[in-house]
Amino acid sequence: MAATSSLQADGDKGKSSEASSKWLNAVSDPMTNIHTFPACMALADLHGDGEYELVVGDLGPDGRQPRLKVLKGTVLRESPLPALPAAAVTFLMESHEPQTPAVAIASGPCVYMYKNLKPYFKFSLPPLPVNPLEQDVWNQAKEDQIDPLTLKEMLEGIREKAEVPLSVQSLRFLQVELSEMEAFVNQHKSKSIRRQTVITTMTTLKKNLADEDAVSCLVLGTESKELLVLDPKAFTILAKMSLPSVPVFLEVSGQFEVEFRLAAACRNGSVYMLRRDSKRPKYCIELSAQPVGLVLVHKVLVVGSNQDSLHGFTHKGKKLWTVQMPAAILAMNLLEQHSRGLQAVMAGLANREVRIYQDKALLNIIHTPEAVTSLCFGRFGREDNTLIMTTQGGGLIMKILKRTAVFGEGGGEADPLLSQPVKLNVPRKTRIYVDQTLREREAGTAMHRTFQADLYLLRLRAARAYVQALESSLSPVSVTAQEPLKLHAVVQGLGPTFKLTLHLQNTSTARPILGLVVCFLYNEVLYALPRAFFKVPLLVPGLNYPLETFVKSLSDKGISDIIKVLVLREGQSTPLLSAHINMPMSEGLAAA
């Protein structure tokens, strides 16, 4: 009786926890034998029948039996792959009906295309240039001018000093035993030397439209530190970009023919940002640890690091937030719920948890029987919000998000204010509000024209005031960032001779300024100066330099005027700085 009561209590507890969960358990099969990572998982309607299927680039249990696996419902189909997959994506190659997406598997130096799950096309990366010294050494070996031991010594010297890496053939030769060298040389000396790079990551980029059913280009990251954009029809290289390191994760947004942004997380622990017209990175994010995942959530780049943390960055590299994880991050991917406009990042942890974050707010925690190594979220079958996970032991877990589920901060609990149907106290519409609304409907065009006319008038007045300020140069501070200067003038004396002192200061922090002149513009009928211009000495940053001269008033009627001071660079006519000095009236002449 006690055992029966305990089992019944455990069952009731499991039912209550499942009822309070936001997820429905669909599939939990530990014997599916799927070994992959997030970059090799994709969801697509491969046959155009509305049934979305799971495409997996499987590594095999020991990494020696790579296969392409497609799961439709409960039916799993397999086909062998020639090498271990690096990424798997689905994309539309053509815009005409019927639109059926193709499957692209990046493996080694090639991309294998499948349409209707049948081989369609194979794209190979272009070969890299061979080291001419290496080519010459192998030519000598081909003509039996050097023995295998000399060949090995020469190749080792080339590997240590040359900038161009050795080919795979030479690297294999350097690894063979002494007794096998001669046989290796005889077997390979007649073959041509080739340097071939491999694909490290792959994603898709819309070509000219942002629609979900628009044609997409393939974006490849290679071991030779390059990014390639492929045409979806001819499979030619549309664009090539260089990176300082080997890319391992890619995220793109935009359209290739309009404007796009590309983020690449590389092996040197940095994330580089590129745009459409840039052949090299424009911004760089230097991480304190190696990246283990990269997800674009709205306009925020979420980077997972091997220091068990998530970081949020803008496209210009500004750090927004950091969240510490309780365990190591094994997998990351995007959760996008179209019905509610929600985008969040999913992180599979080594402590058998899957955590869902929106920015740095924790939305939900999913506990799994094993650690999750790959996950993806999207439509599977006819269910829109399906979470698919694979575990370290090769198991498959599927969960369906409930249609009534609402994510909120703090473990997924909804906000009490949002969950309660509280009626807002909306004030009644007054007569003035109704009359104003009717007037805006009837005279909307005239009101808009009046607003535009006033706006243009405001802009015109602002422009005129700005031009007047530039022409009169009322500001004694330089507005150019190249020459940061500050000018202050002091007039001393009762007349008819005045002492004019100019205090010139270099406001930069570290850069001295040389090659400046001071020029005076004045009415020669009223004033006389010993020199109309003179050179300025070297201006050390932060110091105040007094420049003195004398001004003699020539008018016997007590008339005063302004003297304009210009600071210019030698050989140029555009002033860097100017000021107006209001000269006082001569006391001696006024008394006379």
UniProtKB/TrEMBL annotation:
Q: Which InterPro entries does this UniProt record tie to the protein?
A: BBS1, BBS1_N, GAE_BBS1, Quinoprotein_ADH-like_sf
PANTHER family for this protein: BARDET-BIEDL SYNDROME 1 PROTEIN
Q: What is the protein name stated in its UniProt record?
A: BBSome complex member BBS1 isoform X3
Pfam families per UniProt: BBS1 (PF14779), GAE_BBS1 (PF23304)
| Residue span, Bardet-Biedl syndrome 1 N-terminal domain | 23-275
What organism is the protein native to?
A: Odocoileus virginianus (White-tailed deer)
Q: Which domain of life is it from?
A: Eukaryota
- Ranges where the Bardet-Biedl syndrome 1 protein GAE domain occurs: 485-587
